[in-house]
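User: For documentation purposes, I need each entry recorded in a consistent format: the amino acid sequence on its own, followed directly by the corresponding structure tokens. There are two entries in this batch. Please keep commentary to a minimum and don't merge the entries.

Assistant: Recorded as requested. Entry 1:
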Amino acid sequence: MNKTCVLASLAVATIAGGIGFATLSAAEDPGQAPAAAVQTDPAKQVTIWRDPGCGCCDTYADYLERHGYEVTRIDDRDFDKTSVSVGIPREGLGCHLAKVDGYFVSGLVPVEIIERLVTERPEIAGITLPGMPSNAPGMAHEKSGTLKTYAFEEGGIAVYADE
């Protein structure tokens, strides 16, 4: 092998080794969190318990995802019983149950109302939009018209939003 080839090979090996060391050093830097450890804002994480045959629940989950939420869908044919067990009045059940940043949300509640809930942080268990209103997200592409959402807690229910 001639001297130029040997020197070129050493130069390439040295550069490659330096790049490898720099990459390894950066990956082991304790000041930098690994990409997998980056957490989504809890106010943007939603778990939905839904009847697996309900198409509007999937449409609603897609709506939340379009608005920046990370949605986990759980098939639960008894979501209505689960909903009652967390305090939602039977007459106030929506078509699925969700949990967002510590609050229970029942039904096709618009994003603006959810964002108001997690920003204001009232001392309630959650909110519900009863039934399956045709103008609610999940039934319609986006909310249209007025929807009445109720707050619920151990002491009862009250109107939370009428907009």
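Entry 2:
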Amino acid sequence: MSLLTLLPFIVLIGAMFLMTRSAKKKQQQAIDMRNQMQPGSGVRTIGGMYATVKEVSEDTVLLDAGPGVELLFAKNSIGSVLTDEEYNRIVHGIEHDLKSDADVVPDDASSLTETDDSSDAAAASDDTPVDLGKKDAADEPADADEAKADAQSKKSDGDSDAK
């Protein structure tokens, strides 16, 4: 057998080794994160519940989910340990203003538009209806007469059907 025929198998074995190595790294990081939990730190469970760690034992964690609510979870059911800032932002809605020098974006666009005399004139001209259809000047009277005739015929047709 030549090296060229063994090359696909070698590449496949190498890829499998790298994939299992990265999975083991992630597992080890999760174990380290769970071992670093201390009472008072905020956590998110794998089910999406946010709580504060009250007590940590070897395999379980006692969580304080609210006033008078204590829950016992398995240690491996903790999805992530949150920083104090992140926990307060998510649970209590407390934002730390890191960008106090930045401009505040308004909720509506009305304050972004400039108020000039030209805009007041444009607002005054908004009262008149604008026809966006493509009509020739010669066609308008004929079209208006046809529209009135169609409307009258529809009224008479509708009255006879309703009775």
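Summary note for entry 2:
The CA atoms of residues 7 and 28 lie 32 Å apart.
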